[in-house]
Write a structure and sequence with these properties.
Length: 472
Amino acid sequence: MTEQTYSFFESVTKSFDKAAKFTKWEAGLLEQIKVCNAVFQMKFPIKRDDGTIEVIEAYRVQHSHHKAPCKGGIRFSEAVNQDEVMALAALMTYKCAIVNVPFGGGKGGIKINPRKYSEFELQKITRRYTSELVKKNFIGPGTDVPAPDYGTGEREMAWILDTYSTMRPGEIDAAGCVTGKPITQGGVKGRKEATGMGVFFGVREVCMMEDVMRDLGLTVGVEDKKVVVQGLGNVGYYSAKFFREHGAKVVAIAEYEGAIYNADGLNEEEVFQHRKKTGSILHFPGAENILVSSEALELACDILIPAALENVINGENASRVKAKIIGEAANGPLTPEADEILVAKGTLIIPDMYLNAGGVTVSYFEWLKNLSHVRYGRMEKRFTENMNKHIIGQIEELTGKTVNEQERKVIEHGASEADLVHSGLEETMVEATREIMSIWKANPSIPDMRTAAYVVAINKVGTAYAELGIFP
């Protein structure tokens, strides 16, 4: 049977429609939630370093205005098109709703391969794109707040902030127009590892649920679980790091040039340094090479973390995937057909739409920091440390015993910005996981965790519209 092909936005819509049947909202409101509210397509010229003129194609989509501002990354990729940006913007709406981040979904993209442009050319493209967004009111701390995505990072976000501030002089909250900025430009500590850490927190919470693990034939917790990670970018790297540090074995890591396998486990930092030195993860000491990268997805393991591309598990290879849990760290790594095949096999799929919400959650914390104009921990860190020291002193005086030095440091420690950000992220992912699983358990007709997540998202967005009185 030939797999039916869907555009990315059609795949999101198919999942939405599947979940909408389990909600109370009438068809008109569901249609409003589903559609993209605003699509901005632009084309602008830049002069290349060699003097030639090139016309750049770019997009910004605002999927939902039920909350303001809209929020979503900007990606630089030759694969960028309107359908992809619309789909990613829709997923951002649902993602923010699930993790209780008060944003509507947005997304942006510029159709270029950033490796083919000099830094000066990329700066010109980014600044011109930003100026087009400013002119159309598609960016601003209360309107639409971009962030990094595939092909972009802190550097591009700093260019966006500078361009926005130049065009909107005197705007006191200008730093909140974009997140994922360098720390010196108003960024927040803990942002870099946020998405991978969120993936870990979400999967760990599922693994702590005794009934779920019993149904899968697994032990409770992540300790000693065999994990396969596809992608050694930012998300894959930190996902692997946190699983390894909490006792799991990362038995395989895949990248586009191939994959490596070691039953005793791999250290992601050592693999990263090997790739940096040799240009490839292959031939890593002590590991077995897998020359076809996609074959790593079919390895026997407890947890599979696809953290790279869309549609890597599809109707063709889903039946060969042996993982008992799939944590979607990337956006859209499974097609709808793959979903159906794997759910029928009893595989638990933890969906991307909330599992990779660590980035937007910490972006929310950064945005709040920019609006408050004070870093987290500045007001209370020293007070907490001094109070804890006093409490230890009193306990030691009353008991006549001394706290050992290692424990003293732990107890006396006052929370830094990174500590608070990580704690807020953990709380967000744990509560979102529990809410989704609660909805799923309460309605046995819901077929899978992805549908349950959509039900949670649709209910929250629908409630917001209803409370605004838009649909009396």
